[in-house]
Amino acid sequence: MKKLITKKDLILLFVVLLAGIVGIVFMNSADEGKSAEIIVDGKTTEIISLDEAYEKQINGVVICCEKGEIYIKESNCPDKVCMRSGRISKSGESIICAPNRVAVKINGKKGNLPDAITG
Amino acid sequence: MRNEKIKRITFTALMTAIAVVLSFVESLLPTAYFMPPGSKLGLSNIPVMFSASKLTVGETLLIVFAKSVFVFITRGFTAFCMSLAGGILSALCMIFIFRKTNGFGYMGIGILSALCHNAGQLIVSFFLVQTTAIVGYAPVLLIASVGTGFLTGTLLRLVMPYYTKLKEMEK
């Protein structure tokens, strides 16, 4: 019978936790975004400014923007992962609704350079 | 010989039933509201982990597939793809760990399994949404994997003697 917790398990636990924490700190250290890309089926269909209020239904997802933050107000998908993703405002952050093939991604100052932030 | 085969089928069906019931029970728990978006407790992974250690590769994958079909019926096509991709990836990972490695305990197996499940889901969402923006979900999922993996691994350790007893009954 195997043990419940071994040395290898603890190493794994710390490595995974560390990777997660580094990722979160990295994402939180990003600047406030300027614009957001709305991506439907892998194609950018719209770029909106975070300074302006916005509300639009796309593919069953209601995307809202207010006070520089983007969130999903309503969605017809079963799991509502997108709605539970909360409000995003920093460059590099994103909300995905996989069942509806919709993604919103925040960009930094340059506007349309998605990989400059995540890369 | 024929008898042996029937017993194997019965046991595989039993594990599938447990996985489906746990999946359903989990959907009733209010925990989903506290979990980070995209992650689940993964209770149904417990019988799959057991299968990976004691049943054949084919039987284990069959359980994963049957479980995904249940997900398809209750939660739709996208959830089905994610469940299947995550399930297969994590089942193969567990089969490898149980058979080819030494040194990982139940907690480590649970964490690795949860990691693989989340990785499979992210890969599927990458293909569905076709944007690299999905990586934004990765850090939180990594941390969630540690928690859910610890839980499922510990629970597997607890039920292991009972499952093993059930399995022995076929002899």
Descriptive overview:
The complex is a heterodimer of chains A (119) and B (171). Chain A has 119 residues and is an alpha+beta fold. Helix content of chain A is 26%, strand content 34%. In chain A, a hairpin with a 2-residue loop joins strand 4 and strand 5. Chain A is elongated and about 55 Å long. Chain B is mostly helical. Chain B is built from six helices and no strands. The longest helix of chain B has 31 residues. Chain B is globular. The model of chain B has no long low-confidence stretch (mean pLDDT 92). The chains are: A alpha+beta (119), B mainly alpha (171).
The third-level CATH topology of chain B is Arp2/3 complex 21 kDa subunit ARPC3
Average pLDDT for all residues of chain B: 92
Which ranges of chain B are low-confidence, i.e. pLDDT below 50, for 5 or more consecutive residues?
none
Largest interface by Cβ-Cβ < 8 Å: A-B, 46 and 44 residues
State the separation between the terminal residues of chain B, measured CA to CA: 11 Å
CATH architecture of the largest domain in chain A: Sandwich
The number of E-state strands of chain A comes to 7
CATH homology group of the largest domain in chain A: N-utilization substance G protein NusG, insert domain
Lay out the secondary structure.
The complex is a heterodimer of chains A (119) and B (171).
Chain A (H helix, E strand, L loop, with lengths): L6 H22 L6 E6 L2 E7 L4 E5 L2 E6 L2 E7 L5 H4 L9 E4 L4 E6 L6 H5 L1
Antiparallel strand pairs in A: 1-2, 1-7, 3-4, 4-5, 6-7
Chain B lengths: L1 H27 L16 H10 L2 H19 L1 H24 L5 H24 L8 H31 L3
Helix pairs in contact in B: 1-2, 1-3, 2-4, 2-6, 3-4, 4-5, 5-6
